[in-house]
Specification:
Oligomer: single chain
Helix content: 25-40%
Shape: globular
Order of helices and strands: HHEEHHEHEHEEHHEHEHHEEHEH
């Protein structure tokens, strides 16, 4: 780090991290660069413009008070029904458990932006960026949302990342997060934990990442599957610092998060193993109530039915122990 150039001037505008300056400088000194990633040619794999200028079109209202859990829910213009299901069906739980949230999305179409502005004026819970709206850019939306939350000073004990088609069993999640097992941990990064390899052979699969990007870095050692995961609030800056120094940024946002935390010696912790996420829906009230989060099997319209299952009986259930 050149003595005559202040570290703060090296960080691109919009990517400042207010805390952990000593750690930031140490990582920069070690890697000698930041936001400098391996790339393929544009035709082989479009560049994910992390580290480049960006704009926020709409910002949510952020409460100055501390939440127990703050959820970052990733959405799209056309999924307003899913946003409304979450808003309405979790309202009582959110008040009871001190849970706050925002919906994050990006939109590059002006008429759609105007409709989102009207929705935001009513609900005050939308964070909208201006980069191209595509599945490929989800990783960019996630990382920029983490920057927004960090810079806005959102205060919480835990953060959660969730897709907007997930049904969240908040009472069960709260019991897990308040358990002695979790409270005794210095850092928590938890979810449906995975170890896998980048898919560089099946070009038709949505997780395909070409070999020209990953080169020999094929292993993803520890990450939480992206539908829903949680982490203690101190890890937000860890993710952002680690992400500066990854070898590459791919569209697999969950792998990026896991790799950034791995640089910080933090690995995914499984909670309620086998019942963190129902990836293909659930078949009965009893089965659905045993999962922390539920992904629909066929359609997001299943969300209402799942919330009906959860809200009919969960408050009466107090017999499950999570300490084992």
């Amino acid at each position: 780090l050149a003595a005559h150039v202040p570290f703060e001037e090296i960080v691109p505008r919009g990517y400042e991290i207010k805390r952990k300056l000593k750690m930031q400088k140490a990582f920069y000194s070690h890697f000698q660069s930041m936001y400098s990633y391996q790339r393929c040619t544009q035709g082989e794999y479009p560049v994910i413009a992390y580290g480049k200028p960006y704009s926020i079109l709409i910002s949510p209202t952020v409460s100055p008070s501390r939440s127990f859990l703050f959820l970052m829910i990733f959405s799209q213009y056309g999924t307003v029904r899913q946003r409304n299901v979450f808003r309405k069906r979790t309202a009582l739980w959110r008040r009871q458990y001190n849970v706050s949230y925002l919906f994050a999305l990006t939109e590059d179409d002006d008429p759609k932006r105007r409709r989102l502005a009207r929705e935001a004026a009513y609900y005050h819970d939308l964070l909208v960026f201006n980069h191209t709206n595509s599945y490929h850019n989800l990783a960019l939306t996630v990382l920029l949302t983490y920057h927004f939350v960090s810079n806005a000073g959102v205060s919480a004990v835990f953060f959660g990342k969730m897709d907007d088609d997930m049904t969240l069993n908040l009472p069960l999640l709260m019991r897990l997060l308040q358990s002695e097992t979790v409270q005794s941990k210095r850092h928590l990064y938890a979810g449906d934990c995975m170890t896998s390899f980048y898919n560089s052979y099946d070009t038709l699969a949505k997780n395909y990442v070409p070999r020209c990007l990953v080169l020999d870095e094929t292993l993803i050692a520890s990450y939480a599957r992206g539908g829903f995961y949680v982490f203690s609030s101190d890890l937000l800056d860890f993710i952002l610092i680690g992400s500066r120094h990854l070898t590459f940024i791919a569209h697999n946002e969950d792998a990026n998060t896991g790799k950034a935390l791995k640089l910080m010696n933090v690995e995914c912790t499984p909670l309620l193993q086998g019942h963190w996420m129902a990836r293909y829906g659930c078949e009965s009230e009893e089965e659905c109530r045993s999962f922390v989060s539920i992904h629909p099997k066929y359609s997001s319209r299943e969300m209402m039915g799942y919330y009906n299952y959860l809200q009919m009986v969960l408050f009466a259930e107090n017999s499950i122990s999570f300490e084992s």
